[in-house]
Amino acid sequence: MPLRVEGSSGHNSPMENSRSDTKNPPVRIVSMTVRRIMLPLKIKVEHASKVRRESENVVVECRLSDGTVGYGEGVPRVYVTGEDCSRSIEILRNADWNQVHHPVGSFDAAVELADRFSLPPQEGDDRKIVGNAARCAAELAMLDAFGRSFGRSLSEVAARPEFASIYEPRKKVKYTGAITTKGKWKGRIYAWAWRFVDPADVKIKVGMPGCDDVKRLKTFRRIMPSLKFRIDANEAWTAATAAERIRELEPFGISLVEQPVKHEEVGSLKEIRKGIQSPVMLDESLCSMVDAERAVAGGWCDVFNIRLSKCGGFLPSLRLAAYAKANSLKCQLGSHPGESSILTAAGRHFACSVGGLVALEGSFDAFLLKSRLTREDLTFSKFGAWAHALGGPGLGVRIDAAALDAVTLETVPLFESSRP
Questions:
Q1: Pick the CATH number of 158-388 from 2.30.30.100, 3.40.980.10, 3.20.20.120, 3.40.630.30
Q2: What is the CATH number of domain 29-151+401-416?
Q3: CA atoms of 111 and 107, how far apart (whole Å)
Q4: 272-290, pLDDT tens digit by residue?
């Protein structure tokens, strides 16, 4: 099911701190700082793994020798990549920042610099996923800063020859909805709301304790007769019961089943797929290229859920999408509930650059968050769930410094150069 798109003019942010690749001397990173922030949510987000009323994230600030500043964000989740904010910060503090302390004279060179940035390996991490949220925040901060300095957009990273197989720029994209509550009446209210918004589809959390999913989907289908449904079990079912649970829900029209079993039982999905009609998507079990290669070799899924934070940043996420395409698999762009408009902006660049995405999650900002960290409101439209591509350099958004300070719990310096 291809993503619905329309042609439309995007809106541009001011080209602040922009300069030509060739008219100015090289620039270098002179400091990196990480913040631990707490974003309160307007609504409670529930699924089989967690109930969340706020989101604790990391925001990295990158400052260049010409005074340009860029920002990046990661959303650490222990049950996804084995890191909370404290561990993300500690991993960043232990990084070798000499990797990126080299002058660059062009945006292309800056992209290669950010791409080379790696974090120290973590004990027992054979999947190479621990620290992905931390790396995402640092990489995006660098790409935002250098993009602003050289007057180049983050979307241009996807236009590199390496990603020619997936690059498909669009000016406007249609996002999806979600029902993340197990409350009977709240669920119905959200269903009616989505019916009138008319998103590309609606994801429904299933497998939550005390819920009769058959009754819930029957009710939702009656309220939303024309919308496509995806279901997300968040690892709620066992290898022995997953196929039966899915078959019970398939009569209500399911386009996709997300992560039905725990990662420890992910190998069972090859047999589970034989007993169901719906495509299977990996989420918690798809956080790195190691995961992707194992999934393809094992025949575990039909779709990858790519979330920038859990996958380690913009460039690793592009490589996962290209790898999926090369192996005849589909991808969706996912999001972490509670990500701020910093990470939303990065997701928008990905959404408007990568072709063949079966679903787009994110841009819930005004619906979900009590605080907005950018001057721009990146929430998708109330009617149609449409959103425009972002113009301008870097992420294409301007940070609201006062708003960021208001949600900051801790600020930790990571690197500071004494050289000009």
A1: 3.20.20.120
A2: 3.30.390.10
A3: 6
A4: 999 999 999 999 999 999 9
